[in-house]
Specification:
Layout lengths: L2 H12 L5 H13 L6 H7 L5 H17 L13 H11 L4 E4 L6 E4 L2 E4 L7 H9 L4 H10 L1 E8 L2 E10 L2 E9 L6 H4 L3 H8 L4 E6 L6 H15 L3 E6 L12 E6 L7 H8 L6 E4 L5 H12 L3 E6 L4 H10 L6 H11 E11 L6 E9 L2 H8 L6 H6 L9 H11 L4 H7 L15
Parallel strand pairs: 7-11, 7-12, 8-9, 8-10, 10-11
Antiparallel strand pairs: 1-2, 1-6, 2-3, 4-5, 5-6, 12-13
Length: 432
């Protein structure tokens, strides 16, 4: 037997996957095989091991042989190369860090991708870097699903980590999570509007926008505002947990998908029995979750969640599109009554390219908007938003125009970011 066969035998017996007698029979079959095959192949052919176990054993062997002697392995979170890379990326002001097989490490800074390393990472290096961050249960889950989304803590810093398998190997993406929860003022949000939305004791509040626009940061700011002023029970259902809250006046129960619950909908059903005052759902992804969220918002709970939509109207129509046609009229009625407000977000590069500024669209539900939702007259909602400044409402285009007038963004960025580009047509790129 070679070193790999000995490793297979040791792992299988240690994990009690097979008996000693079964291993001995397999080894005898291996000796009789023509052409020479590994012990692992014999166990697979005899159906004594399934493909998942075999792949995990093979992957563990590769990592062990690439990493060298156990005494030379760096301690997780202290001297791992990935920890140093992530720390450097955070210090450089990056929002995201990527390991992509065949490329140098890449960071996203102010919305733009930039190389962050001198040399490409090969498949073996990427797998070693990424798998060293995982515990055995996480490795098993990744090998089974070819995808893992979870949180990571290294050197007292938190990250949202996603690892997936692609044709060249394993890639990893890391989102930097603030150590301190931001305030509305630091984010460029209206404290008056945020206070109004967090003062509700029931209803639905939605924070929307494309990926990477700061939805989670805004939601965390809202929950922290509630934490500072209300004695209540807050349940958060996240994928994964990002900000960890320190209870002040509120009490927190934070649950993570897969680790603590099978799905948002299952967790939401359970949450309704746990005496919550505020329920935060990481994302309204499907009909069942949306249905339970709307029901919860009507039964004495403040529900805060997110959607990947770019405006208030698209948020409402996307929500309705999750439901079967025969339920839409009923759901429109429920949304018209339970919706409290929508914050749509977009991050735009600053004029000097030294950062990004937040542009928002704010919708506060009132009798006029509620009536338009019930009547499916969504096309008229933007007009009500434009005339609702006294209630704190404004459109995305007006927010972008305000930034342009203040000189914080360029005309070109205003042109590309605006829904209605006509007012900024003079800044449009000129054909050569």
């Amino acid at each position: 037997m070679d070193a790999f066969d000995q490793f297979v035998e040791k792992v299988v017996l240690h994990n009690k996957l097979l008996s000693t007698a079964q291993i001995q029979i397999a080894k005898a079959s291996q000796l009789q095989a023509v052409g020479g095959i590994s012990l692992l192949q014999v166990l697979l052919q005899a159906q004594l091991l399934n493909a998942g176990h075999a792949e995990q054993i093979q992957s563990t062997w590769q990592r062990a042989t690439q990493a060298g002697p156990a005494s030379t392995k760096p301690a997780p979170g202290k001297s791992l190369p990935i920890a140093q890379l992530l720390s450097s990326a955070r210090a450089a002001g990056a929002s995201d860090f990527h390991i992509i097989v065949g490329s140098p490490p890449v960071v996203r800074k102010f919305g733009t991708l930039q190389e962050f390393g001198p040399a490409p990472i090969n498949a073996a290096e990427a797998e070693t870097l990424l798998f060293n961050l995982l515990d055995p249960a996480q490795r098993e889950l990744l090998l089974k699903n070819k995808y893992l989304d979870t949180s990571l803590v290294l050197e007292d810093e938190r990250y949202r980590m996603c690892i997936l398998k692609q044709k060249n190997g394993y890639d990893g993406s890391f989102r930097m999570i603030r150590k301190n929860i931001a305030t509305p003022k630091s984010l460029g949000l209206s404290e008056t509007v945020m206070t109004q939305l967090t003062n509700y004791h029931q209803g639905l509040v939605l924070v929307t926008g494309p990926s990477g626009c700061g939805k989670s940061t805004t939601v965390a700011a809202m929950l922290e505002m509630i934490n500072q002023k209300r004695s209540c029970h807050i349940i958060s259902l996240e994928d994964p947990i990002e900000n960890v809250f320190v209870p002040n006046k509120a009490h927190f129960s934070q649950r993570q998908l897969i680790d603590h619950t099978a799905s948002f909908s299952a967790a939401l059903r359970a949450a309704l029995r746990e005496d919550p005052d505020v329920i935060m759902i990481g994302e309204l992804r499907d009909y069942e979750t949306a249905s339970l969220a709307i029901t919860a918002s009507e039964t004495g709970h403040l529900v805060i969640s997110t959607l990947h939509t770019t405006s208030a109207v698209r948020t409402i129509t996307r929500l309705l599109d999750m439901f079967p046609a025969d339920q839409k009229q009923q759901i429109q009625m429920m949304i018209s009554e339970s919706l409290r407000g929508i914050i749509a977000q977009k991050l735009i590069p600053l004029e000097n390219n030294a950062g990004q500024v937040l542009a928002t669209e704010i919708l506060i539900n009132n009798s006029a908007i509620g009536s338009l939702i019930r009547k499916s007259q969504f096309i008229q909602i933007p007009s009500v938003v434009q005339t609702g400044a006294a209630l704190g409402m404004h459109s995305m285009d007006s927010s972008i125009s305000d930034h342009l007038k203040a000189g914080t963004i360029s005309g070109l960025e205003a042109y590309f970011a605006s829904e209605n580009q006509a007012p900024h047509q003079r800044f449009a790129p000129k054909d050569e």
